[in-house]
């Protein structure tokens, strides 16, 4: 195991000792996947948030979409889409983008605590996959601090980092917009999806990840998780 | 399940068999799917390995190779693989490799089985070989057609369901009239003991008895029509209608197993119900006296093609009807030639070959014909008459849009205008020494049908040729080899025709690569068992009775012929509607998913049967 993974595991066990019964405790009690395993031997949870903005301290999560990947296959049957009821009215400028309205939220939205609980449940024992992972990491940490007063360690793979890595390796510094999810998918010949739905973006991220991994390394080369995971 | 995987659902709705499912069944599917990614060059299914899912290509492309490494198919977006393996219990026969990076939706086998059980259309889609699927496709009219009537399926027996009234030939004319009144019919079958001998109609009584003052006490046999024109009750209704129109009669005796059992009247033939235009057109042609008028009437063939395809008439019935039109024009030209040149000095028979011979004409093609002359013919005495006669008819046909045959296989060419004995020698030569040229002629001269003239002249020649052909195994093997020279394409790949060589062609010649291979095979089956019919569907059906092809295979080929033929006619009708000249070159973009899928099935049926024919005649087939 790499040093970061060892430190994360230490933090996990430390936080576990003080964690109350519930989803956080369940999450912390499940060991992280070993980072010396081949990448396709571990499970992932492709994740996407729709938010009212980019600052986790000021903005709120509106919806969460996630879908697991097991044996390098996206398991649509286990996909989940959750609406999260915000504490403040949704700013009109973001409502336009997500097409999520206050009325809909009042009807179908879950309280943040419940949504986070379901997410923690799904993340346990898995590597979290996101496009531009710092955003999801920040919002999860923010919510967790608010509810449990700890920010749990999160093993994450960032498809944007993978793309940046691949482009840099080819001596091709990315231009403006080239690292966006849709642009990368197009580059990999993946179908065009409607953007701005948390679940369809999570599926889109999952597919992009499989394409990126298929093209990374030579045939038969088993890339260990440690080479792609971030803490 | 809280989910809105609309992207997946929208995609499924585009492609069969998922598009065939009810929206309720389909809505549940996305959550049962898995997504897989295969980099170019990756083997997705391994020959001899196992699989547990149906694979649907979401993006990219794959190639399917048989166990011997031969390319079988190339598949792109929306196409499936792995189904046959699932049907075999998961065992993979054909290797599947990504030839482009591919995104694949996998439907687990348990879901596949559930859908097969819950939805019949879904299950039928996966029947091996596709022959059954083709059959159901023939039952499902394509969306753009109106099912107003189906000329193809109507038989004579459908028109005159009740048996005719039979009376002894010994009754009097008056008694006959009373019987007609009693039974409220317009004609009687007259029988001498058991077997009907003739018919008498109300019109006969009026014209032959009353108008001429014959006493009503005379036996009816004095005014009856002995051995009247008759038709088998299993014949297509359109044949009966056209025969009555051609002969200008109102009553036609109907045969069952060779015996007259009923009478079809013009009242039974409800022209409106069965589509009047071809019948009236043929009737009109027989009354025309002027070449310009005839040429104008011939223009109607394209209109007929358009109206009949939009009425969802079968390809078989359409080919027959359009051939009737050509026959009528030919016959009219022959009569005009006789009027102009005088009575023929010796008996003759005018024969049509090729698609006219087979009664499978579509949009007008080239003419193929020949003339058999009585053996009393001498060139010095009669040569000039028949030269002028044939020239007149062939010129007339050309003027009516049936272009001169580029190979000169026409009666106007002295080579194909011969006394019966020379024809016999010619055929004998072709059969004993099947050269390349002889095989080339085979598609014309082994599909001959008498259009007009002396029946015995033609029948004798035809019979002797068939017997000679049947007995010559080497000739039959050559014909079989010839039947394998054109092979249907593997299918389609992204709006391109996927050819065996791996190269793509822009358009598909539906006649050359679709119809002709079936016609050629049917000819071989027919020649093997002395089947006299030349129509491909009839050949297949009769040959299957005589055993040169299995009934199942004959049925599969008939249906493949019907589907390819119907697609071809629809294409021609489309062009005619757009004011373009109808041809056989179909661009795959014209095809609906429905047609595309079923054309592939039809091609597969043809390829399988070609392989079987090759095996039977021990011919090495290059695939």
Task: Describe this structure as you would to a colleague.
The complex is a heterodimer of chains A (231) and B (623). Chain A has 231 residues and is an alpha/beta fold. Chain A has one domain (3-227): Ribonuclease H-like superfamily/Ribonuclease H (Nucleotidyltransferase, domain 5), CATH 3.30.420.10. Chain A contains nine helices and six strands. In chain A, strands 1, 2, 3, 4, 5 and 6 form a six-stranded mixed β-sheet that branches. Chain A is globular, with a radius of gyration of 18 Å. The mean pLDDT of chain A is 91. Among the domains of chain B are: 6-126, Sandwich (Jelly Rolls); 152-270, CBS-domain, CATH 3.10.580. Chain B is built from 25 helices and 24 strands. In chain B, the strands form seven sheets. Chain B has a four-stranded antiparallel β-sheet with strand order 1-8-3-6. A four-stranded antiparallel β-sheet of chain B has the order 2-7-4-5, with no helix packed on it. Chain B has a four-stranded mixed β-sheet with strand order 9-10-11-12. In chain B, helix 6 crosses helix 25, helix 10 (237-247) packs parallel to helix 15 (315-341) and helix 21 (473-483) runs antiparallel to helix 22. Chain B starts with 5 loop residues before the first helix and ends in a 7-residue tail after the last helix. The model of chain B is unreliable at 141-150 and 271-276 (pLDDT under 50). Classes of the chains: A alpha/beta (231), B alpha+beta (623). Chains A and B meet through strand 3, strand 4 and helix 9 of A and helix 1 and strand 1 of B. Strand 3 (73-75) of chain A pairs antiparallel with strand 1 of chain B, so a sheet runs across the interface.
Keywords:
heterodimer, A: 231 residues, alpha/beta, Nucleotidyltransferase, domain 5, six-stranded mixed β-sheet, 6 strands, B: 623 residues, Jelly Rolls, CBS-domain, four-stranded antiparallel β-sheet
Write down the CATH class of the domain at 6-126 in chain B. Mainly Beta
Q: What is the typical, i.e. mean, pLDDT of chain B?
A: 85
Helix content of chain A: 40-55%
Uncertain stretches of chain A:
none
Rounded radius of gyration of chain A (Å): 18 Å
Derived structural class of chain B:
alpha+beta
The share of residues in helices of chain B is 40-55%
**What would you call the shape of chain A?**
globular
Approximate strand percentage of chain B: 15-25%
- The CATH architecture designation of the domain at 6-126 in chain B is Sandwich
């Amino acid at each position: 195991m790499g040093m970061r993974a060892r430190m994360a595991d230490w933090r996990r066990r430390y936080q576990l000792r003080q964690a109350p019964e519930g989803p956080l405790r369940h999450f912390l009690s499940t060991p992280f996947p070993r980072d010396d395993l081949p990448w396709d031997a571990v499970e992932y949870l492709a994740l996407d948030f729709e938010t009212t903005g980019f600052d986790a301290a000021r903005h709120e999560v509106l919806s969460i979409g996630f879908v697991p990947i097991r044996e390098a296959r996206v398991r649509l049957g286990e996909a989940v889409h959750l609406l999260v009821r915000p504490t403040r009215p949704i700013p009109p400028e973001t409502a336009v983008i997500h097409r999520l309205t206050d009325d809909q939220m009042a009807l179908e939205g879950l309280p943040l605590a419940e949504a986070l609980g379901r997410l923690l449940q799904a993340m346990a024992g898995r590597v979290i996959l996101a496009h531009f992972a710092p955003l999801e990491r920040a919002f999860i940490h923010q919510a967790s601090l608010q509810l449990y007063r700890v920010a749990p360690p999160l093993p994450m793979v960032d498809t944007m980092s993978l793309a940046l890595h691949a482009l840099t390796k080819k001596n091709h510094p990315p231009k403006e917009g080239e690292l966006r999810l849709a642009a990368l998918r197009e580059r990999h010949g993946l179908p065009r999806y409607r953007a701005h739905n948390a679940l369809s973006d999570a599926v889109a991220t999952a597919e992009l990840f499989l394409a990126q991994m298929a093209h990374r390394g030579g045939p038969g080369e088993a890339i260990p998780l440690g080479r792609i995971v971030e803490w | 399940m809280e989910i809105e995987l609309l992207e997946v659902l929208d995609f499924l709705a585009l492609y069969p068999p998922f598009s065939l499912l009810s929206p309720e069944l389909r809505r549940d599917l996305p959550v049962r799917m898995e997504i897989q990614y295969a980099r170019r060059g990756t083997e997705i299914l391994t020959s001899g390995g196992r699989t547990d899912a149906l694979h649907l290509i979401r993006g990219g492309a794959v190639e399917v190779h048989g166990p011997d490494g031969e390319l079988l198919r190339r598949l792109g977006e929306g196409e499936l693989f792995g189904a046959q393996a699932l049907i075999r219990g998961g065992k993979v026969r054909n290797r599947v490799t990504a030839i482009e990076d591919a995104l694949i939706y996998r439907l687990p086998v348990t879901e596949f089985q559930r859908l097969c059980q819950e939805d019949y259309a879904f299950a039928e889609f996966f029947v091996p070989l596709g022959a059954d699927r083709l059959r159901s496709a023939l039952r499902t009219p394509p969306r753009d057609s109106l099912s107003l009537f189906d000329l193809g399926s109507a038989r004579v027996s459908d028109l005159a369901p009740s048996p005719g009234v039979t009376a002894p030939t010994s009754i009097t004319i008056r008694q006959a009239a009373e019987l007609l009144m009693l039974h409220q019919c317009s004609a009687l079958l007259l029988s001498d003991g058991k077997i009907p001998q003739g018919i008498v109609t109300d019109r006969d009584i009026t014209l032959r008895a009353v108008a001429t003052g014959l006493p009503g006490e005379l036996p009816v046999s004095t005014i009856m029509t002995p051995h009247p024109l008759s038709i088998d009750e299993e014949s297509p209704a359109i044949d009966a209608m056209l025969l009555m129109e051609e002969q200008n009669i109102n009553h036609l005796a109907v045969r069952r197993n060779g015996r007259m059992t009923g009478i079809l009247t013009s009242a039974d033939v409800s022209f409106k119900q069965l589509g009047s235009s071809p019948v009236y057109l043929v009737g009109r042609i027989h009354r025309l006296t002027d070449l310009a008028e005839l040429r104008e009437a011939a223009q109607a063939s394209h209109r007929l093609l358009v109206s009949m395809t939009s009425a969802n008439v079968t390809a078989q019935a359409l080919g027959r009807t359009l051939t009737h039109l050509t026959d009528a024009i030919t016959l009219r030209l022959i009569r005009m030639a006789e009027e102009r040149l005088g009575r023929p000095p010796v008996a003759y028979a005018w024969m049509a070959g090729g698609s006219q011979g087979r009664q499978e004409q579509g949009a007008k093609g080239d003419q193929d014909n020949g003339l058999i002359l009585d053996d009393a013919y001498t060139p010095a005495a009669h040569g000039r008459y028949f030269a002028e006669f044939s020239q007149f008819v062939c010129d007339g046909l050309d003027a009516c849009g049936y272009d001169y045959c580029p190979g000169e296989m026409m009666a106007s060419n002295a080579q194909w205008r011969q006394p019966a004995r020379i024809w016999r020698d010619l055929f004998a030569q072709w059969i004993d020494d099947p050269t390349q040229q002889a095989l080339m002629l085979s598609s014309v001269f082994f599909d001959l049908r008498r259009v007009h003239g002396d029946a015995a002249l033609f029948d004798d020649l035809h019979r002797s040729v068939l017997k000679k052909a049947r007995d010559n195994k080497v000739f039959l093997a050559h014909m079989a080899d010839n039947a394998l020279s054109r092979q249907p394409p593997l299918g389609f790949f992204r709006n391109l025709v996927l050819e065996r060589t791996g190269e793509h062609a822009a358009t598909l010649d539906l006649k050359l690569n679709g119809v002709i291979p079936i016609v050629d095979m049917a000819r071989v089956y027919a020649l093997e068992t002395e089947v006299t019919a030349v129509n491909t569907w009839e050949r297949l059906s009769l040959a299957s009775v005589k055993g040169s092809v299995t009934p199942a295979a004959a049925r599969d080929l008939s249906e493949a012929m019907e589907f390819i033929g119907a697609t071809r006619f629809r294409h021609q009708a489309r062009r005619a509607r757009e004011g373009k000249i109808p041809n056989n070159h179909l661009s795959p973009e014209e095809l609906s998913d429905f047609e595309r899928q079923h054309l592939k099935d039809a091609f597969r049926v043809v390829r399988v049967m070609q392989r079987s024919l090759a095996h039977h005649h021990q011919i090495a087939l290059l695939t």
